[in-house]
Specification:
mainly alpha; 2 domains; 4 helices; DUF6154; Mg/Co/Ni transporter MgtE
Amino acid sequence: MRLVDELFELYRDQLSDEEDLDIIAFSVLEHCNHKQLLGIVEEMNKEELAYFIRLFLLEMLKEKLDNSDKQREELSSSAKYLH
């Protein structure tokens, strides 16, 4: 993906950990409007788009699972006080 290649070349010597990657990703998102973000997606080839969607679905499902587990734990711990 062209954007990833450009960002990697630009920040290659400054990247040390995942936190740096988060900062770069959030910075890109912060400076792009809806139309520009759609343009990035439109530039993806079929494999890149499939990977992008797979990652999105995986992360969203993980988040829902984590939230569901937390809700169950909260209900379980609050039920102790009802007896």
